[in-house]
Amino acid sequence: MTTSSSSSKQNISLEEWEGKMAEVPIAKNDLNQLIMNYLIIEGYKDAAEKFSEESGLHSSVDLGSIDERMQIRVAVQSGDIKTAIERVNDLNPDLLDTDPRLYFHLQQQHLIELIRQGKAEEALEFAQDELAPHGEEHPELLRELEKTMALLAFDPSSRSPLAELLDFAHRQKTANELNAALLAAHSQPKEPKLPALLQLLAWTQEQLDEKATYPRINNIVNPVLEEQSGAKETA
Amino acid sequence: MASAQQHVQSVQRLQSPDPVEVYSALRTIKNSIIGSTTKKSLYFKLQIIPHVTSLLALDDTDVQIRVQATAVISSLAHKDEEAARQLLDSGVVGSLIGQIAPGADAALTEASVRALNALLSYESVKLGVEKHVGLMVPYLLSIITEAKDTSRVYEMRAHARIELAILVLGKLCMTEARQYTIANTGVIDMLASLLPCGYPRLQIAALKALSALSYENMEICGALLLVRLKHKTYTEAILDLARNQDPDISLCACMCISNMSRMRTGDLLKDIQTVVVPALVKLLKTPGFSALQVVQSLGYLCHEDADIQLAAKNAGVISELIKILVVIEGQADADFVDQELNMRMVKGVFLTLGTIVSTNEECRRKAVEDQALVYLVRAMGHSDSGVKAAACLCTRYIIRSVSICRTHVPESGILAPLMSLLQDKTADVQVTASATLVNLLTDFSPLRADALKAGLIDILAKLLSSPNSTVCRNVLWSIRNLLVGIDDDTRREIIDKIKIETLFSLSSAPHESFLQEHALGALRNVVVDSMLGINAVFDTMGNNRVIELLRQATRSDAESAIKVHGLYLANNIAVRSQEHCEIIVGDEWLLRSITSHITNSSSEVAIAALWCINSIASHRLPSQGQHESDGESAEDVGTCRYMTELNALDLQATLERMLDDPNLALDVRDRVRSCLDYFPESET
Questions:
Q1: Candidate from A93, A133, A143 with C-beta closest to B114
Q2: Is A93–B201 a contact, with Cβ atoms under 8 angstroms apart?
Q3: Which CATH class, in words, describes the domain spanning B502-684?
Q4: Contact, B317 vs B338, CB < 8 A?
Q5: Is B316 helix (H, G, I), strand (E, B) or coil?
Q6: What ranges do the domains of chain B cover?
Q7: Average pLDDT estimate for B212-239
Q8: In chain B, fewer beta carbons within 10 Å around the N or the C end?
Q9: Distance (Å, rounded) from C-alpha B587 to C-alpha B590?
Q10: Between A and B, how many residue pairs show a Cβ–Cβ distance under 8 A?
């Protein structure tokens, strides 16, 4: 039952809300596509194959390509940048030649790995021979190089102001950037649609909060429609 | 990390008889050079090209080795145009084409077409592959059709081959002949069918190729208008893509439509204003997207189309362009900024802004409101000549507006930098600076007096001997403008410094009609309303040379613009005094030539000739008391002094016939009537 509270917000009961939701036609195939899209972009090849079998959904994507992409991602995540670069060069030799920023970030990550391993001398030499000339060509990248070089001034085991560069999250960031570039180079979206849809849900609920009291989804991990207190206060 | 010695060894290993060793060396080299310009340079110094190309030239080279060697070539080509030229000169293109022949190994085909795509990124290489085009095009088409047939779903490798082959096809469209060669293969339908495919890389490749095929080619643009996809026309499909969320797709689609805008088709122009212009504005605001390309596309789209220029202004383009200048100025002293890119951007912004304000007063006002003049004046002091030239060009278009010239320009501080650019060391800057000056020296421009005080005439006199004829043309044009509405002191200074003799010799320069036109224009203004000027001309040149010049300028085969200035020069002489008019009328050939132009198909020429006749006819016989000593009868008093000469040319009858012509232009008709006032009314 729809009512109006004193603050002019509309109250919508759980029953009414569910009824309205049931009226919205959602094709199962669309939901399956959404899941498949997530599995492919995130690189869950086995799960994608299984899901394809079970749902009868034929992927429009060559599932074999996921493997190569994932091997590259794993190499970056484990700090083996040289292997990652070699694999990228086998998969798409143009990618690092035409994207100087991405190439720089991979080289920067390699420098970080050398510093992490305490190979200061090798790191210095690598920065001079490989990164500095690249920075000269692309001055907008020099700030990042300076920041990375500053790592050499700190003990890797201590908590330095630049510790974030040594954090696993930085490897993950580099891996994500590379993954996105590989996906784009192969006509795939850089990000799965599912997280964007969840963001849209959050934004929509925020907008709706200003106008109505309704059964909300408060926990995205375990989504349940929760009736808000205002909804019970019927006039 | 490999040392210098290891790189040398890698090159040496390429000559090993062991294929495994060669393969491994190629992989090492490939992984060293990809992404690194320094390493590419190093391997060029180590003479990598002959080693790698010889591997491809041998018939029995293993496919895996070929793939790696081709990838090395591809990466080397990414270095720069010089590197690509060296590769082209090595003859490697022939080997690469051999590797994309139908039936070739798929991985080798992909690597080879990738290398061709990298090589063809440069203008000189695109032109340099002429002899290969005939063989390359069918091979590329076969790659596209074969890969399309074999891949039902997205297959990474097959799609890469299609994409690269399409990109190469597009890059080959460098000349009109090649556009037709490629279009005649039926590729347009094939490319159009890819537009709704949903794979961004293929869509972008197809759009780029279609854009290259139709660039400045109205016939192909016309053919594209007739293409139909499943449920829509080609233009509908492209307009949909112009609205696409992917900025690369949107930009490429806008570029395709821009080509077609040159056809000036009504409906399409409306779509451009409502869809394409807003799409480009959106791209201009998209963070991280190449604004330079968008700015250049907007410039191309707005070229010579006042409606699109106004639509661009209404969509906020001018403000967005100025915002870019603000950001770049803020980064002027920053360390971590690509200043080279910023410089190209500033140049692009000025050129596009110049195009947008070139015809429309409203656009000019908006640019001035947004402080464009401030940035333009500052840019005139830039270190790069391209930026200075672009700033001058944009300024030139803005100050076409009389009201802006009168109000905003004087306080902008433009005069000093512009005058200094007149003497810039580069010809491009001199050309655009002198072209801008032309608009600043009109009689309504408040800056004219300041320019004269600042020694402008000396500068102009010096520039008149420039080896660059466009600079000379602009200087003559400036002198022309300067001579209108000035006092005799300034006129004398101009005559003394520029020299009548110089203007005469340029007026009769037979092979440079654009100099001739403006030199005649300047002479015409030297003598206008000034006895000082007319005396200077006749004293310097003598009657015969003046008449000879007028004869040349009014010849039937002279260009219209020259005829117009010649006729007005004759008019300005004839109107000055009876003595001067006598010189004109006394030359029967010249008088006949002037009279013949009153029926010229160009109204401008006809009006100039009619003014001249008008001036000649305006000299009347003296009034009673004066005329007796001249031996003229009383009944002639007040009539046209040269009636006999004019009637001998059947002028009155010609003028009357002209009035009977219902198609006579109104402004010509007015002049004819005015001339006829000097003749007695016909008895009929």
A1: A93
A2: no
A3: mainly alpha
A4: no
A5: coil
A6: 188-263, 268-344, 371-498, 502-684
A7: 93
A8: C
A9: 5
A10: 91
Structure pTM? Answer: 0.83
Structure tokens at B645: 């000469």
Residues B157, A197: Cα–Cα separation, whole Å: 31
Q: For residue B153, give the chain A residue with the closest CA.
A: A60
The ranges assigned to domains in chain A are 3-59+192-232, 66-185
**Tokens 């994500």 appear where?**
A176
Location of structure tokens 């899901």: A51
Interface pTM (ipTM) of the complex? 0.81
Query: Tokens in use for B180?
Result: 């037709």
pLDDT digits (tens, 9 = 90+) for B312-357: 999 999 999 999 999 999 998 888 888 899 999 999 999 999 999 9
B111 neighbourhood in chain A, CB within 8 Å: 93
Q: What is the per-residue pLDDT for B266?
A: 77
Classify domain B371-498 at the CATH class level: mainly alpha
- Whether the per-residue pLDDT at B664 is higher than 60: the answer is yes
Contact B338 A133 (CB under 8 A): no
CB B331, CB B337: distance < 8 Å: yes
Unique residue bearing structure tokens 């310009």:
B37
B188-263 has which CATH code? 1.25.10
